[in-house]
């Protein structure tokens, strides 16, 4: 179904000429697996409220495995089994392929609960789960049938920086390259990345997706190899001479479409697959940072309840104005940050549903504005974590202390390429005034 006033859009508008030489390497379609036209969800009657409640019920278990998760570089296998069984990976997946398609607001509430237990675990889960919409939005129908497979099991990072090449051959591409920071690859079933086609760089990146068995996940994450988010499963991935069929690729220029929704909104008749990703992708980074702040607040509360002041009068810290002030200020910052996320999640779905229903676009500026708002939420969360870390005393900085981990996990976000709030704010203003912008 096409929204009012919008023409149909080809599900694969970018077809690059193919070379005549046939190269047979790792061929996805050689696996003769039956691909049903539709896959039922594991729990057809599951509700958003129930899946959020499941996430909240897991917080103590998530918190308990955080140290081990840091050591091994990803959350523990038993926890991923529970995430899978709870349906977390299917929240944003098309219903046709065994998903629930509950919406961005529900997904973000689930990730927020997981992040309260451990920020790195939430980062890895989120970036393994929230790329299903990218496939549902932009990939050809044949590719979606192939990638979601016979069961609908789909866990997939997306490395957006084009660190490798896709060389055209008969029927598809030969892909080579190494991509770092592939967050969410710890339990991935697939790998998605952006590449460049040699000689056609001016056309922009080509996005490819292939089963995880076709790539090599490098052992370069966790156990203190980086200051924070050690449990996020952000390993590098190497791809060597892998054949990817044409139908498992699409143009990587997802962010510059103006008044047309992604083909997936029409294919699935669902506003969730409208194709806007600025807010969606950045929330996946910021919600874990808010979770780190919430975790720091939890630890600080335990400190106030269990420790006394150093100097007379020797009283419980929670009774002293200085400690109360730190707690109250941090809590208000965290509450405001979470409120921004909740508002953006609701606004995202409202704008997408309006686009689907009436044809009035959910604009690129709308999406970028929410991206900027979510950056403000990150600054609030980091300010809260810094305040709590500084007020918790030096014992909180010891190796193995939960407060130290929350501080480190929050700090790592600051170096992320998309965390530059000043740059994004400028680009939002340029969009508003009709000036050329350079937002990716």
From TrEMBL:
Any Pfam family hit: Acyl-CoA_dh_2
Gene3D superfamilies xrefs: Acyl-CoA dehydrogenase/oxidase, N-terminal domain (1.10.540.10), Butyryl-CoA Dehydrogenase, subunit A, domain 2 (2.40.110.10), Butyryl-CoA Dehydrogenase, subunit A, domain 3 (1.20.140.10)
Coiled-coil segments: none
Entry keyword set: Oxidoreductase
Domain Acyl-CoA dehydrogenase C-terminal: 284-419
TM helices/strands, residue ranges: none
GO molecular function list: flavin adenine dinucleotide binding; oxidoreductase activity, acting on the CH-CH group of donors
Name of this chain's protein: Acyl-CoA dehydrogenase C-terminal domain-containing protein
């Amino acid at each position: 179904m096409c929204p009012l006033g919008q023409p149909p859009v080809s599900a694969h508008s970018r077809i690059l000429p193919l070379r005549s030489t046939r190269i047979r390497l790792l061929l996805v379609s050689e696996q003769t697996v039956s691909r049903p036209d539709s896959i039922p969800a594991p729990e057809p009657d599951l509700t958003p409220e129930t899946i959020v409640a499941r996430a909240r019920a897991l917080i103590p278990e998530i918190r308990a495995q955080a140290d081990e998760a840091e050591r091994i570089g990803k959350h523990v296998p038993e926890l991923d089994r529970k995430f899978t069984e709870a349906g977390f990976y299917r929240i944003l997946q098309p219903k046709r392929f065994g998903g629930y398609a509950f919406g961005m607001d529900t997904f973000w509430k689930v990730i927020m609960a997981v992040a309260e237990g451990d920020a790195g675990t939430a980062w890895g889960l989120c970036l393994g789960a929230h790329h299903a919409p990218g496939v549902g939005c932009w990939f050809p129908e044949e590719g979606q049938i192939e990638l979601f497979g016979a069961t609908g099991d789909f866990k997939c990072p997306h490395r957006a920086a084009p660190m490798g090449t896709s060389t055209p051959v008969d029927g598809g591409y030969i892909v080579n390259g190494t991509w770092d920071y592939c967050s969410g690859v710890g339990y991935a079933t697939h790998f998605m990345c952006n590449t460049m086609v040699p000689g056609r760089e001016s056309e922009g990146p080509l996005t490819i997706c292939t089963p995880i068995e076709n790539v090599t996940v490098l052992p370069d994450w966790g156990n203190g190899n980086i200051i924070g988010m050690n449990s996020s499963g952000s390993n590098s991935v190497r791809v060597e001479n892998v054949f990817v069929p044409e139908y498992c690729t699409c143009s990587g220029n997802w962010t510059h479409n103006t008044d047309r929704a992604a083909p997936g909104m029409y294919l699935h008749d669902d506003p969730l697959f409208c194709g806007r990703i600025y807010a969606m992708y950045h929330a996946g980074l910021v919600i874990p940072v808010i979770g780190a702040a919430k975790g720091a607040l939890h630890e600080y509360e335990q400190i106030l309840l269990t420790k006394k002041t150093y100097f007379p009068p020797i009283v419980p810290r929670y009774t002293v104005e200085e400690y109360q002030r730190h707690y109250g200020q941090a809590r208000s910052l965290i509450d405001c940050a979470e409120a921004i996320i909740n508002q953006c999640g609701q606004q995202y779905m409202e704008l997408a549903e309006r686009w689907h229903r009436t044809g009035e676009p959910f604009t690129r500026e709308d999406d970028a504005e929410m991206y900027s708002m979510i950056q403000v939420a990150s600054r609030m969360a980091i300010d809260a974590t810094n305040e709590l870390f500084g007020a918790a005393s030096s014992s909180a900085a010891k190796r193995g202390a939960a407060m130290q981990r929350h501080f480190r996990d929050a700090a790592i976000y600051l170096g992320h390429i998309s965390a530059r709030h000043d740059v994004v704010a400028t680009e939002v203003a340029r969009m508003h005034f009709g000036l050329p912008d350079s937002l990716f």
